[in-house]
TrEMBL record:
This is ABC transporter substrate-binding protein PnrA-like domain-containing protein. The keyword Signal applies. One of its GO terms (cellular component) is plasma membrane. It comes from Paenibacillus baekrokdamisoli. The lineage of its organism: Bacteria, Bacillati, Bacillota, Bacilli, Bacillales. CDD domains: PBP1_BMP-like. InterPro entries: ABC-Purine-Binding (IPR052910), PnrA-like (IPR003760). The keyword Signal applies. Keywords: Signal.
């Protein structure tokens, strides 16, 4: 983000957009999306299909973006299966197939029978499939990496926003206002559930998606307990987007550490 900001300052007549950033300039905006909504839906599917009640999560880095997706995944699973636990292993890389595979195998060896990876390669999905475990990736539909054992995963739809930005630049109406998309505007979604996922599970996921779309379901509405057992969000309260984007704690049921 800072690199983009520095370049933007050197070329004030050029418009820049940064994904997931939080700093802007006169000629630099930011955009992202509530991908935690997709993670929550993936969690619902995972919470039902697991037979061991242990879900594995390969996280890239211990930053809020990854942490709130882990928590959303866990909350989705726990909404249909209170016994579901999520074990987290950090790969500390955005892309390293070997490291990610090792992390995935360590979770499978621990007993996880559903895996999700945030960013990175397809090796987590492939490692899970080799063990007959369900797998979920991130960013885009990874069905081809495990056709028989694919669960689903949160996805991005960047095209409409890019088109909107280009038209705004051409029309001279572009602003640097931060943009945060969601399921409601199509910025984020989930991939189709895999062939082994029962129809009743698909219906539960579809029903939850409909509730998110109509506003009756908010992913981070309390009561939410943190891993220590203390109540972090009171019953009926909903976390602000600002607080979600600063999240540095795990919800109850998530096993892992967050290095400071």
């Amino acid at each position: 983000m800072d690199y983009t900001l520095n370049v933007a300052k050197k070329f004030p007549k050029i418009i820049f957009e940064h994904s997931a950033g939080h700093k802007t300039a006169n000629n630099m905006g930011t955009y992202f999306g509530k991908n935690f909504e997709g993670s929550y839906l993936a969690g619902i599917a995972a919470g039902i299909v697991t037979k061991k009640n242990l879900l594995g999560y390969v996280g890239a880095f211990p930053i809020p973006e990854v942490i709130y997706n882990i928590n959303a995944f866990a909350l989705g699973a726990q909404s249909v299966n209170p016994d579901a636990k999520v074990s987290v292993v950090w790969s500390n890389t955005w892309y390293d197939p070997t490291t990610e595979r090792q992390a995935a195998i360590s979770l499978l060896d621990k007993g996880a029978d559903v895996l999700l990876a945030y960013r990175g390669s397809s090796t987590t999905v492939q490692a899970a499939a080799e063990r007959g475990a369900f797998a979920s990736g991130n960013d885009f539909d990874r069905t081809k990496d495990a056709p028989d054992d694919y669960l689903t995963n949160p996805t991005w739809n960047r095209g409409p926003y890019y088109s909107k930005i280009m038209k705004a630049v051409e029309a001279g109406t572009w602003t640097n206002a931060p943009y945060m998309g969601s399921l409601a505007d199509g910025r984020v979604d989930i991939a189709p559930l895999g062939p082994k996922i029962p129809d009743d599970v698909k219906k539960l996921v579809a029903d939850a998606k409909a509730k998110i779309l109509d506003g009756s379901l908010k992913v981070f509405t309390g009561s939410i307990m943190e891993a220590s057992g203390a109540e972090k969000v009171k019953a009926g309260d909903t976390m602000s987007l600002e607080d979600i984007l600063k999240m540095d704690w795990f919800v109850k049921g998530v096993d892992g550490t967050i290095p400071k």
